[in-house]
Amino acid sequence: MKNLLRFAFVALLCTAVFSVYAQSETKVKVNPKFGFNTSLFNTNEISDFEAHGRVGWNAGVDVRIGKFFYLAPGLHYYKTTMRFVNRSEVEDFQFDLEGEPTIQSLKMPILVGGKIPLIGLRVQGGITPSYVLSTRLPNGTDLGTGLLNRFTTATTFGVGWDLTFITFDLTYMHSMQSFFKDWDAKNNTITLTAGVKF
User: How far is CA 89 from CA 51, 95, 97, 119, 170, in A?
Assistant: First the structure.
């Protein structure tokens, strides 16, 4: 409950910032997006086993406030696969990719950025709070979240390109906390998205 309250507080703070800017004369654009992500659980604590995250998908919306310099809060749903594999399985490619659990989470990036006029290239960075909703098997069985730190944050950096009303973004999120409660394994994620802005 404490983690959920923290996530709700950050969400309310972001909403408040958006409300202040939206009521001013600052240019505001809505940017729904869809994309794919890949993640790697980085750990130094376990030598024989590694936790690997692989490709997933994500969808959400950003609100870009400003023209050439902007604030961009957003809310995105992420679904990624996860399984634990022995190091020798990875080296010999002897593991089955089917029947893996999935992680569903909400991410709320709060980014600031700058855009180069005429060519539409962008650079942005900030923080991304994340909240794990559930972990499930392919048959729908809920595995629970007792072993996870449900609320984490990540430093976020990315580049983007605006092609008229179409947007493309490549983003890297570097986790600041462990994904698991009992051992240090940070979940770093790369996301590629396409969207539209209006």
Answer: 12, 6, 12, 46, 30
Name the CATH code of domain 2-196 (choices 2.40.160.20, 3.40.50.720, 2.40.70.10, 1.10.3720.10): 2.40.160.20
pLDDT at 169 exceeding the cut of 90 = yes
Q: Could you please report the per-residue DSSP string of 26-66? A: --EEEEEEEEEEEEEEE-SS-SSEEEEE--EEEEEEEEEEE
Tally Cβ neighbours within 10 Å of residue 58: 20
Over its C-alpha atoms, the chain yields an Rg (Å, rounded) of 18
Q: Which residues contact 65 (CB under 8 A, 6 or more apart)?
A: 18, 21, 22, 26, 27, 28, 71, 72, 73
Residue with tokens 């990540």: 154
> How far is residue 78's CA from residue 133's CA, in Å, rounded to a whole number?
10
Look up the pTM and report it.
0.79
Confidence label for 183 from pLDDT (cuts 50, 70 and 90): confident
Map tokens 């650079």 to a residue: 123
Cα within 13 Å of Cα(57), Cβ side: 4
pLDDT in tens, 115-158: 998 899 999 999 999 999 998 877 778 878 888 899 999 999 99
